[in-house]
Design goal:
Layout (H helix, E strand, L loop, with lengths): L21 H12 L2 H13 L3 H29 L3 H8 L6 H34 L7 H12 L2 H21 L2 H27 L5 H12 L8 H14 L6 H6 L8 H29 L10 H10 L5 H34 L4 H20 L15 H29 L1 H8 L8 H26 L5
The structure holds phenylalanine.
């Protein structure tokens, strides 16, 4: 009987990409990290939380928290070549550590709920950019366009469904290789366009004083602005940015080859990712001040300010469209990596095929996501803990679930897995000659990161101190 029970049959391995080259590994991992976090979330949060002090807190969190968690996740996944839950099950049989992976799958839903909606806004903006509706230097005009878009329930819902369907189709088709190849070409273009917009923003004619104000806002910290709740938001952003604390990097690590240098790749991904965020800030804040926009408008900042900058450039309309398309593409890599977490879990833990698992994930996501999609229209007055659903999913995932996941991941690597195993896994059994770096990482992951996360989390939630 046991023999014929399909649940007990060994599952065929998930159809997964196996990154073959160092460049492929780097690009794919960076592809998960880069996304709306850089272009939309970072500027919006920096604007809303007082500027440079927040940027500083974000960078410090990225180094002391994001990077160690990323290395921990990658090495957990690579050591088992399995999804997040199975990796923990194998490393700690009979223990509850797999719950960290399960929490991550749940976090993926919450993140995708609002993420897919923002991508929908990006896509719905493209026809507006083409038609010339955004061709203005007046942020009050673009703000009106944006508000009318997000308060349209039908457009918000249908836009989100299209985004979900698009990601689901790629996941089912399993053409991650194609995506990888495409992002390899497009990431440099994204950099180029960002630099171009940044240069324009820094050279707006007759606006020297305002440009200086914008840069000061971004780079001259006023530390009195750092409350614990701001610190928690900065740390949450560091988690979100590097796609850590929820199993995505465990899954990606499982695609790594055994000779990949994990600490080095993680460091490079982190540096490139921070650079893109800063570039986005440089592209946006001088213009915010130059055109008298409000830096603290929140989620709309990208949609309100960027068009006013591109509008002053030669071929501004084309640059705006290109920027939107590239934002959507940057977000695709991130969405795929988010989707993969619940899909991999369902496909491995149940009898569902990968296609069925994807369809179920997509339907569940459309249900949860609709609450975010309708947050500025039909459900605008429904508030939980004073937040709309859109803000709630965002807050819950970044400020709660990812830090909790990251805390346990570091505790696992630092205190449960053990130094000899971690050393072997990260030095590739001594072949990399990077033991000093690994030891340094291990010390941080064991003593610094968990304590920092715990203190910022508890104080940021106002539970302590
Ligand atoms: N890092 C992605 C971004 O900045 C978001 C993400 C979070 C992706 C968590 C995967 C996991 O847009």
């Amino acid at each position: 009987m046991a023999q014929s029970d399909p649940a007990l049959k060994p599952k065929k391995p998930l159809v997964r990409d196996h990154f073959t080259t160092t460049l492929g590994i780097f690009v794919a991992t960076l592809g998960s990290a880069l996304g709306l976090g850089n272009l939309w979330k970072f500027p919006a949060l920096t604007g809303a939380n007082g500027g440079a002090a927040f940027v500083l807190a974000y960078i410090i969190s990225t180094i002391l928290v994001g990077l160690p968690v990323m290395i921990s996740e990658l090495v957990i996944g690579r050591s088992q070549h399995a999804n997040a839950i199975t990796s923990f099950r194998r490393l700690a049989p009979g223990k509850l550590w797999w719950l960290v992976g399960a929490l991550g799958a749940l976090a993926a839903f919450f993140i995708l709920a609002f993420y897919t909606e923002v991508v929908a806004w990006v896509l719905l903006y493209i026809p507006k950019a083409i038609s010339g509706e955004l061709a203005t230097s007046d942020p009050a005009v673009t703000e009106k366009v944006f508000v009318s878009l997000i308060s349209n329930p039908v457009a918000s819902l249908v836009g989100q469904w299209i985004v979900i369907a698009y990601v689901a189709v790629i996941i089912i088709a399993g053409v991650a290789k194609g995506i990888e190849r495409v992002t390899r070409i497009l990431i440099p273009i994204l950099f180029a366009i960002l630099i171009l917009i940044g240069i324009r923003s820094l050279t707006l004619p007759g606006k020297a004083a305002e440009i200086r104000q914008g840069l000061a806002f971004l780079f001259t910290p006023d530390l009195t602005k750092l409350t614990f709740s701001v610190l928690l938001t900065a740390m949450g952003l560091a988690f979100f940015k590097l796609s850590v604390g929820m199993g995505t990097m465990i899954t990606y690590g499982s695609y790594f080859t055994d000779d990949a240098n994990i600490p080095r790749i993680a460091l490079r991904v982190m540096l490139a990712d921070v650079l893109v965020s800063i570039l986005a800030g440089v592209a946006i804040f001088p213009a915010v001040f130059a055109f008298g926009a409000e830096p603290a408008v929140g989620p709309g900042l990208l949609f309100i300010t960027i068009p006013t900058v591109t509008n002053t450039m030669p071929l501004g309309g084309v640059v705006m469209v290109a920027f939107l398309v590239l934002t959507a593409i940057a977000a695709t890599g991130a969405m795929l990596s988010l989707f993969e977490v619940p899909v991999a879990y369902l496909a491995e833990k149940t009898r569902l095929t990968r296609t069925q698992a994807t369809v179920i994930t997509a339907v569940l996501l459309a249900l949860i996501g609709s609450t975010a999609a309708l947050s500025s229209s039909t459900l605008a007055n429904v508030k939980i803990f004073g937040k709309t659903f859109f803000d709630l999913w965002d807050y819950l995932s970044s400020n709660l679930m990812l830090p909790i996941g990251g805390f346990f991941i570091c505790v696992f690597v630092g205190w449960v897995w053990g130094w000899p195993q971690v050393r072997d896994a990260l030095t590739n059994k001594g072949t990399l000659n990077n033991e000093r770096v690994v030891k340094f990482f291990y010390g941080i992951a064991k003593f610094v990161t968990p304590i920092l996360v715990l203190v910022v989390l508890l104080c940021g939630l106002g539970l302590f101190g």
